[in-house]
Every structure is written in structure tokens, then in C-alpha cells.
Amino acid sequence: MKNIRSYTVLNNGVKMPWLGFGTYKGDAKNSIVEVVKEALKIGYRHIDTASFYNTEEGVGTAIKESGILREEIFLVSKVWNSDQGYEKTLQAFETTIKKLGTNYLDLYLIHWPQPQSKETWKALEKLYKEGRVKAIGVSNFSVKQLKDLIADVEIMPMINQIEFHPQLIQNDLMEFCKNHNIQLEAWSPLMRGKVFEIPLLQELSRKYQKTISQIVLRWDLQIGVVTIPKSTTPARIKENSDIFDFELSKEDINKINALNINFRMGMDPDKVYAGQIINN
């Protein structure tokens, strides 16, 4: 992990940058187009979006206007719950790539587990076999939901993108994914700013002369978790990328691990599966 271009290798041989840029919920002051262009200018090459975020068109425009070759960017999107099922997923994919202005994705994910996710997965396998998606995976799947899915798959998921931060580590899920060669990826790694309130992280920030965001993102990488922080502020976007010039001690990693209290910022995947409405 020498720089922002450093990558992990997925179980199918595809290279995925450890550090990505999230695009969930842009704001009115800083359009998603300008924000993503700034991230690309800084050096990010892993961009995460989803149909639910309503940022796909802006991301596509930013990539086009950046002048950076599409092949240099690891582009991710997700199929939303109401679009799940075999045929609907294939249609949703066509809509997504049209909005993004591309003819392929580097990674396509099932956004949340749903009763029809097995049919959705068959659609993802078809897209993968056709070369329209370089890697396929899931998001927000628990151990139980992963076990249920992979019992019938032809192609194993390459990614499980989950809520992951110092207060929600999910050790059983980490162990399961490791044993099945499924790369874990963190969304909301900074707990929507709540990490700044944690005394241990404040202490480590002083010790390493790094910001709390940098401490947490570096922790993600050192424990083998791909991470996708989001920000709309140029200074913060740059700050979040400056995590390759220091290393946390094993002792301090263990201290951060000990912060886990199974606290969720977002929805519980089991409740989403059962049909509860997502409002975050």
C-alpha cells in the first residue's frame, strides 16, 4: 500500500484500488460533477456510485470531462431493491451504463439482500460472462445471507460492501469473507463524522500527527478492508487520500478493534430483507 493507486487482487484476478471515492448524497453547493472531477484530479481512480444515489449521470459526466481514460478508472455501481430479479436487473444495468456513459462496469453489486437476490445474481453472472462487468459482488449481506446466496451460485461473489467502522467491525462476517476469498469493503468508514467524537481516535491523531479521518482510513487498509470515504470539500478529499505515508502499530490497531460495540449508522440488512423502508 504505497500510494493511492495501490490495489488488492480480487478472487478472479481483477485489481481493485484499496482507496475509493464514495458519491452517496451530493449537496447543492458542490455538484457531483465537480466533486468527482476534483477526486480524479487528486488521484483517486476508484469511484463508487449506485442507481439509488442518483449520482450516476454526474459521475459519468465528471469522468468524461476529466480527460482520464475510462480504462484507468475502477467504476462501481449497484442494482437497487426495486430493480431486483433477473430481467429487471438486466434492464437496470442498461440504464446504469447509459447514465454513466460507459459500456462496462468494473464492479456491479446487489445493493441490499432481497428475497429475489438469487435471480438477481444470475443476471450478474450473465453480465460477467459477457464481459460487460469485470467483477460482481454484493453489498450489506450478513453471513446468513451470504451462505444462502452462495449455496446456489455458479460464480462466487468477489466483494461484500458493508457498513464498517470502528464501532461496527462484524468479526464473524470478516472471518467468513476471508475464508471464502470475498473482499470486504467499507461504506460509511467515518461514521458520518461520529468518529471525531471518539477519545481513543483523538489520542491516536495526536500521537501520529494525522487527522482522525486519516487514522481510521489507514486502519481500514491495514486490516485488509477496501474503503470508500466521501466528501464534497476539496481539502477533505485530499486529506482522505494522504494515508500512505505512515503506518499504525499492531498495538494501536488492536485498540481500535476494541472499540467495536456493534453500533449501526444505517439499516440492519435483516430488516431490509424483511421489507422495511430504507431512509439512509
TrEMBL record:
The keyword NADP is annotated on this UniProt entry = yes
Query: Could you say which residues are annotated as the site Lowers pKa of active site Tyr?
Result: K78
Query: Active site annotated at which positions?
Result: Y53
InterPro entries named among the record's database cross-references: AKR, AKR5G, Aldo/ket_reductase_CS, NAD(P)_OxRdtase_dom_sf, NADP_OxRdtase_dom
Q: Where is the NADP-dependent oxidoreductase domain?
A: 20-260
Which PROSITE patterns does this UniProt record tie to the protein?
ALDOKETO_REDUCTASE_1, ALDOKETO_REDUCTASE_2, ALDOKETO_REDUCTASE_3
Gene3D superfamilies xref list: NADP-dependent oxidoreductase domain
Q: Which UniProt keywords apply?
A: NADP, Oxidoreductase
Signal peptide location: none
- GO molecular function, a single term: oxidoreductase activity, acting on the CH-OH group of donors, NAD or NADP as acceptor
Binding-site list for substrate: H111
Q: Which domain of life is it from?
A: Bacteria
Please name the PANTHER family in this protein's record: 2,5-DIKETO-D-GLUCONIC ACID REDUCTASE (PTHR43827), NADP-DEPENDENT OXIDOREDUCTASE DOMAIN-CONTAINING PROTEIN (PTHR43827:SF3)
Similarity-based family:
Belongs to the aldo/keto reductase family.
User: What is the protein named?
Assistant: Aldo/keto reductase
